[in-house]
Amino acid sequence: MDDFDILLKEKAQKERVDIPDSLEAKIMQTLNDLPQDRKIRKRSVIAVAVAVTLLMLPIMTVYSKDIALVSSIVEYFQGNSGQRYSNDAGLYEKYSIGVSKTISDNGVSVSIDSIACDDNFLVLFYTVEGDVEKTFKGRGEDTFPRSLFGQIIINGKEKSPSNNDSYNYDAYLTPEGRLKGMIRADISRDSLPSEFNIEFLANEICGKKGQWDFKLSVSKEAATKATKVVTVNKEAYIKYPTREHNIKIEKVSFTPFGNQILISEKYGSTPKGEDRITFGDFALFDDQGNPVDVLPASIMGGVESVENSFEFIKCNKDSRFLTLVPVCHTDNAPEIPYNPAGVPIENLPIELKLSSQGSLVIEKVDFSGIDTRVYYTKKGVVSPITGFFHLIDKNGQNISAQARSIVDREQGLYVDILPKLDSNEKYKIVYYTEGKFDLLYQYKIDIPLM
Amino acid sequence: MDYKHEQLVDMDVPMAKNGDGEAFGRLIHKNKHSMYRIAKSILKNEYDAEDAIGAAILHAYAKIYSLRKNENFSHWLLKILINECYAIIRKRTKEIYTSEFIAAQGTYEDKHNDDELTNSLNYLEDDQKIVVILFYYEDMSLKDISKTLHVPEGTVKSRLYRAKGKLRDILGNSI
């Protein structure tokens, strides 16, 4: 704890949040409804009841004729070039099937415009129109619409849960007030034939209840030619100073929409339940010893075992093997000082040293009439996160607060998209270095890919 | 917070463990602001935050007998709440037991928006935001945050460190 920590803690204790009346009412109602006998599993009963109700509901699906809409994906990405997967637009277009199925209920129309699929990801592009509360307030002047959420059933079975679904919702509002979005579902755990059927079931859209249930046919055949899936099944034991992991490298998949490594873990007898830490900190290297970037991912926990998949870039399917090296964060103290003064954006590229192991390289800054784009790469071993830097103007003001980060998987580039800026101004980059970490080479795992 | 109130709350935990619903209610009311701040931060909207808090109250009531240390009630309750938040996200996505979640980018906002630290949370990445809330607002230790979010302590430290850097920039001139 330093002085700044103490100041922030004092500040936090003084700031209080006001509870909305509706929440006060909800708390009172919940407390009033508490079961007298604590053994009554009220929630479970409700959950089961809901599940049964869902099963018994007739699926009111509209089976419209498939109409090829080749341009719907292009249209989606052209509508907002800052979308998270905009750099992959061409690939989605290449491996997609036009669908154009619309279901209307309760004043809201949902259209599935296109589906794209490979061995790792199933991607649905959709449009929502009608009377819904579509937005919630975002940073600054921007608005970030709510995404469409739904259940995905594949060949009659619920899609396997994945830690890597949670980053994969993206949407925006068109000037006409339509919600356009995409859902990128991780299907790497589902063993699927080339062609299969899916159901997409939604019963709430942007706060409005209804039933929008789609039955669709999907093919991943086109993407199969550009795909390499290696079943690895390699077990490993890793010991950290305060914990240990028994993991298994299940699978490595190189696919057009994103490469993934699937890692399972069996928990030991201690610690139990919520005290467990799931393995997820590691660096990857290709067969030339070059670092491979791991992309940000959620991490799932489980009861006795769990599977997590991690996307990576800068390695193609020709690599003969991958090497996984566990990372151990040892201290929050930076090895290299944080740079609050800022580095002038001149003479690009600029290398920003984040630790003794890795750097960010600012490759290019593009000032256009629409926005400003900062292109950078990671060099060496760098944590799978974004937000290492921001731009400041001549007054020291942070002008990156509204930046969105996207990844160019094909080029191995990251792009931060900022609002339109004056290209004649002198800007500086302020960046945060990493805390100390060690690469545990004694536990490295070679993963054959041939 | 005055001493008497703290003593009263301390007594409420064992009473609630013995099935005293009123004592349990008092504990919930004491923690409701923290619960709302966290639920809103993770879920981004009122409806889901209210659902998560309702579910966490039921869960906590059903499980309070298993609370080992009475003095840990607040952190235990918040841990349950965070899991309920993730459960709501799972309902959306049909995931199980997600330990971290970055939803569609959204803003932490509340009705009391003159508070500059609260407002500055909007400039943080979601993974940093939750760590800041647990560390500065809820006074959780790095170890407890690590257990609550199921991520290594080093990761928590690293996120907190980066968040601090940003907060120093944002708040530097005003505190």
Question: How are the elements arranged and paired?
Answer:
The complex is a heterodimer of chains A (450) and B (175).
Chain A: H1 3-14, H2 21-32, H3 42-56, H4 72-79, H5 89-94, E1 96-105, E2 108-117, E3 121-130, E4 135-137, E5 143-145, E6 151-154, E7 157-158, E8 169-173, E9 179-186, E10 195-205, E11 208-219, H6 221-224, E12 228-239, E13 244-254, E14 259-266, E15 282-285, E16 291-294, E17 305-313, E18 321-334, E19 339-344, E20 350-353, E21 358-367, E22 371-380, E23 389-392, E24 404-408, E25 413-419, E26 428-431, E27 435-439, E28 445-448
Antiparallel strand pairs in A: 1-2, 2-3, 3-9, 4-5, 6-7, 6-10, 8-9, 10-11, 12-13, 13-14, 14-17, 15-16, 15-18, 16-17, 18-27, 18-28, 19-26, 20-21, 21-22, 22-25, 23-26, 24-25
Chain B: H1 3-17, H2 21-43, H3 46-63, H4 73-93, H5 116-120, H6 126-137, H7 142-149, H8 153-171
Describe it.
The complex is a heterodimer of chains A (450) and B (175). Chain A has 450 residues and is mostly beta strands. Chain A contains six helices and 28 strands. In chain A, the strands form six sheets. In chain A, strands 12, 13, 14, 15, 16, 17, 18, 27 and 28 form a nine-stranded antiparallel sheet that branches. Mean pLDDT of chain A is 81; it is low at 37-70 and 136-144. Chain B is mainly alpha-helical and 175 residues long. Chain B folds into two domains: 1-110, Rna Polymerase Sigma Factor, Chain: A; 112-175, Arc Repressor Mutant, subunit A. Helix content of chain B is 69%, strand content 0%. In chain B, helix 1 (3-17) packs across helix 2 (21-43). Mean pLDDT of chain B is 74; it is low at 1-9 and 94-113. At the A-B interface, helix 1, helix 2, strand 8 and strand 18 of A face helix 2, helix 3, helix 4, helix 5 and helix 6 of B.
